[in-house]
Design brief:
The complex is a heterodimer.
Chain A: H1 18-32, E1 40-44, E2 59-62, H2 68-78, E3 83-89, H3 90-95, H4 97-106, E4 110-116, H5 151-157, E5 162-167, H6 173-182, E6 187-192, H7 199-202, H8 207-216, H9 222-226, H10 232-241, E7 263-271, H11 276-289, E8 293-299, E9 308-316, E10 330-333, H12 336-341, H13 343-347, E11 354-358, E12 369-373, H14 375-378, H15 385-395, H16 402-412, H17 415-429
Parallel strand pairs in A: 1-2, 1-3, 3-4, 4-6, 5-6, 7-10, 10-11, 11-12
Antiparallel strand pairs in A: 7-9, 8-9
Chain B: E1 4-7, H1 8-18, E2 23-26, H2 33-42, E3 49-52, H3 56-68, E4 73-77, H4 79-94, E5 99-107, E6 113-117, H5 122-127, E7 136-138, H6 143-160, E8 163-169, H7 170-173, E9 175-179, E10 225-227, H8 241-256, E11 265-268, E12 273-279, H9 283-296, E13 302-306, E14 308-310, H10 314-321, E15 324-331, H11 338-344, E16 349-354, H12 363-372
Parallel strand pairs in B: 2-3, 2-4, 4-5, 5-8, 7-8, 12-13, 12-15, 15-16
Antiparallel strand pairs in B: 1-9, 5-6, 7-14, 11-13
Classes of the chains: A alpha/beta, B alpha/beta.
The complex binds iron/sulfur cluster.
Iron/sulfur cluster binds near residues 122 and 197 of chain A.
Chain lengths: ~425, ~375
């Protein structure tokens, strides 16, 4: 395979720029691996390292600062067969830190080349995430206050199996890039080099200094074993392959006759754990089984195990426009938190409304008729208050009837849950309730 | 066939699937999370990809990469996430990357109220990216719309190679509704216009009869370049003012000149009369209820429910408002789209009714605004 360098667009770096070495090293690695341009996507970040994609005859994507890994992830998931190479500087490393960490944790087969030259070259030599505190940079004293990022240690700690740091002048550069490209998983190379355009104007640094610094740093090779695991993309496809395709949404056929026509608004006020949302859904399904239109809107706090739980349902023989409450025909006040949350609504209830309330629930003064339900006497537990209330309504042909409620239970539950709920509904619906007398 | 009891976000997911979506990435955020949940059920078992990004920026970035590799991609979030998407949206606009963005709006500013609805991002979706170049925004008013407009959003994203917003609202996205998806008439599914892979390819060259470049995916036989930099037809950075100008004007024209072909709306009530209520999204439902009551009382009011919000369907609005004495704009914010209506109808009496307290605008309030406006 020939060189993939774009002869129409030769590198335009400052004389002596280390990036030039990496461009040529990367090209040699491609050649050695016998890769053609159509099998490679180079995703470049912003800054001088962001020019990389233009020097190669490969697929290329040049995007926003720090986000190169995000595009590369999308490309690689869509096209697992491509070699996806990301180039970024120490600037991209800093601004895109969250993406670097996540790429390490994910272990998707990407090769990240960090072109580390200790400063922002393109914008005038400001300090970056890797600038030593003693350096003279375009950010005044600010770099003196921060610690440079040792990216390989961070990446290894975050789960990257292949991390290496090396100098742009290392004779092993091509071999290491090649190894990274061949590695089946995420690989990160911290490639350090000179930026004569900016950094070394004010800071004495030679290839030898870089090598000496690298030699001082601890060995990283143990990460390869410590972090060895399945590559993200193949693992993803393996897991996905075991999944069953989701069934099409449940289809409700009309099988019952509703007790009446018009719009019925039912509000179920309860507390977390009282299966309020399930009851609202059952009511909607019951309405649909009788050919009615239905809506359901729930209200609960971000805490799942405590606080209010409210379900607002509308059943109507006409299409439902406004989904807010106009004049609730029935309110089920089953838990104190829900009732407290809807004080204003309760106060404004019209006289035609019926409120069924569990013992102990405090309600504000209102015009609606209020009936108290003795769930204790009915031997119903708190989590079944809502279903039992629906059964009472069904038994009295109010809003829904027994056929509708049973149809809803059949749609919603299977096996033991179905049996249990059907038994409860039969038992409660047959009770004479003073609420409707 | 029977009806299903679905919330808007589930219908968005099924609509996406029906439109050929095979890539989704998102970051959890109420009230958009159930779009992610739905896509996670739908895509991976069918060979598609559903990812949870480390943040919103990553999620939309994954989508841009996948879209450039030829996948049909969608992401979903709410106001705080759209804020983080902003520069990636600019990338999708300027570099013509097809993408569907679901914005399940919630009450802002900022973190605001996670579980309260609003239509507070209407101008933000249009203008919240650098450059001011246009995007397409479609607004569903019910669960059926969520399904159909998501399909249309994909078709438009593919046709015009641009980001398309589905401007939902917590009040539609998280409200369950009985709906017969089988009774809907879905649009024909459209893919990108692709270039001939055997001919010389310039990634941003525009065919003579179109304003949108033909597409080839990253990863095919032909090498493809994509760049967020100001570029010429070859996809390389350019500083040539003439090239730049031509491209900028094309980016604007390819959507603004074409809006008539994707102006979706629903008009209810008489074709001429006293007040035309201009509204969109969930508020259109209350407006329809108000108008039906007003019509029964002999008041000749009507509703124009705009399902295409951006680019502004100016021709439709001008045409439909002619036969009415007065316009009333109703929206779940303190006055956003009304600015567009005032702009395009300078000689018309334009009233406004807005609300931003996390609650729906009631039919009653709209009736009063019509009567006493
Ligand atoms: S500024 Fe520095 S990094 Fe940029 S091209 Fe010049 S030497 Fe290289």
């Amino acid at each position: 395979m020939d060189s993939l360098l774009n002869t129409h667009r030769p590198p335009v770096f400052c004389p002596g720029c280390a990036h030039d070495k990496v461009v040529r090293g990367l090209d040699k690695a491609f050649v050695n691996l016998d890769l053609s341009g159509d099998r490679i996507a180079i995703v470049s970040d912003i800054g001088c390292s962001g020019l990389f994609d233009t020097f190669f005859n490969t697929h290329a994507l040049h995007g926003l600062h720090g986000r190169a890994l995000t595009y590369a992830t999308g490309i690689k998931m869509a096209r697992p067969d491509l070699k996806v190479v990301v180039t970024m500087g120490d600037g991209g490393l800093g601004i895109g830190g969250a993406h670097v960490l996540s790429a390490c944790r994910r272990n998707l087969d990407l090769t990240l080349l960090v072109l580390n030259n200790f400063n922002y070259g393109m914008t005038g030599g400001q300090c970056s995430s890797t600038t030593p505190p003693g350096a003279q940079v375009g950010s005044g004293f600010l770099n003196r206050l921060e610690r440079p990022l040792e990216i390989c240690e961070v990446a290894g700690g975050a789960g990257a199996p292949f991390v290496r740091r090396l100098s742009s002048y290392d004779p092993e550069l091509v071999a290491v890039i090649q190894e990274a490209l061949e590695f089946d998983g995420f690989s990160l190379l911290d490639i350090r080099g000179l930026c004569p355009g900016r950094y070394t104007k004010r800071n004495k640094q030679t290839p030898k200094d870089i090598q000496a610094e690298l030699d001082r740093l601890p060995d990283l090779s143990f990460y390869q074993q410590q972090n060895a695991r399945a590559e993200y993309g193949s693992h993803y496809r393996q897991e996905a392959g075991r999944l069953q395709a989701a069934e099409a949404p449940l289809q409700i056929e009309t099988s019952c006759t509703p007790p009446g026509s018009g719009r019925q608004e039912v509000v179920i006020l309860g507390s977390a754990g009282q299966r309020i949302v399930t009851a609202g859904e059952l009511l909607g399904l019951a309405g649909m089984s009788a050919g009615l239109h239905a809506t359901q809107k729930n209200d609960y706090p971000i805490t799942v195990m405590k606080g209010h739980s409210i379900s607002e349902c509308i059943l109507s023989s006409e299409a439902i426009g406004y989904t807010g409450l106009d004049a609730p025909s029935v309110v089920l006040a089953l838990g104190p938190e829900g009732a407290a949350k809807r004080k204003r609504m309760l106060k404004e209830l019209p006289s035609a409304s019926l409120v069924l309330k569990a013992a102990g629930i405090e309600l504000p003064e209102c015009k609606a008729r209020i009936a108290e339900l003795d769930f204790k006497a009915l031997q119903v537990k708190s989590q079944d208050f809502a279903l039992a209330s629906l059964a009472l309504l069904a038994g009295a042909n109010r809003v829904l009837n027994l056929d509708m409620l049973k149809a809803a239970l059949h749609f919603r539950f299977k096996g033991k849950a179905l049996e249990g709920s059907l038994a409860l509904v039969e038992r409660i619906a047959s009770q004479e309730s003073p609420a409707f007398s | 066939m029977g009806r299903s009891f679905l919330e808007g976000n589930e219908a968005i997911g099924w609509g996406a699937l029906a439109a050929g979506c095979n890539f989704f990435a998102g970051y959890p955020i109420t009230p958009a999370t159930t779009v992610f949940n739905t896509m996670l059920q739908l895509l991976p078992p069918r060979g598609g990809t559903c990812l949870q990004g480390e943040d919103e920026i990553a999620s939309i970035g994954f989508c841009l990469g996948a879209s450039m590799a030829g996948h049909k991609a969608m992401t979903a979030t709410s106001g705080p996430g759209i804020s983080l998407y902003s520069e990636q949206i600019s990338f999708a606009i300027g570099s013509e990357i097809p993408l569907v963005i679901v914005n399940v709006q919630r009450l802002g500013p900022s973190t605001g109220s996670a579980t309260k609805g609003a239509d507070g991002d209407i101008q933000f979706m249009r203008w919240g990216s650098s450059s001011g170049q246009p995007v397409i925004v479609l607004a569903p008013s019910d669960v059926a719309d969520c399904f159909l407009l998501t399909m249309r959003a994909f078709n438009l994203a593919e046709t015009y190679r641009c980001p398309v917003f589905v401007a939902a609202n917590k009040e539609i996205s998280m409200t369950r509704e009985s709906v017969d998806l089988n009774a809907l008439t879905p649009p024909r599914v459209i893919g990108r216009s692709t270039a001939d892979p055997d001919k010389d390819f310039l990634p941003f060259a525009v065919p003579e009869d179109s304003l949108t470049p033909d597409f080839l995916p990253i990863g095919g036989k032909t090498l493809v370049r994509q760049t967020s930099s100001t570029h010429g037809p070859d996809g390389y950075i350019t500083t040539e003012p003439e090239l730049i100008e031509k491209n900028q004007e094309r980016l604007q024209a390819k959507l603004e000149k074409e809006v008539a072909s994707f102006t979706y709306f629903q008009q209810t009530g008489p074709a001429q009369g006293s007040t035309l209520i201009l509204t969109y999204g969930v508020t259109a439902r209350a407006a329809r209820d108000a108008v039906s009551a007003l019509n029964q009382d002999g008041d000749r009011a009507a509703v124009l429910d705009l399902k295409t919000l951006w680019p502004v369907p100016e021709a439709l609005i001008i045409e439909r408002s002619k036969a009415f004495d007065r316009i009333l704009v109703v929206e779940m914010n303190l006055g956003q789209y009304v600015r567009e209506i005032q702009r395009i109808l300078p000689n018309k009496k334009v009233g406004f009714l807005g609300r931003m307290n996390g609650e729906l605008i009631q039919p009653q309030g709209i009736r009063e605004a019509v009567r006493h406006g």
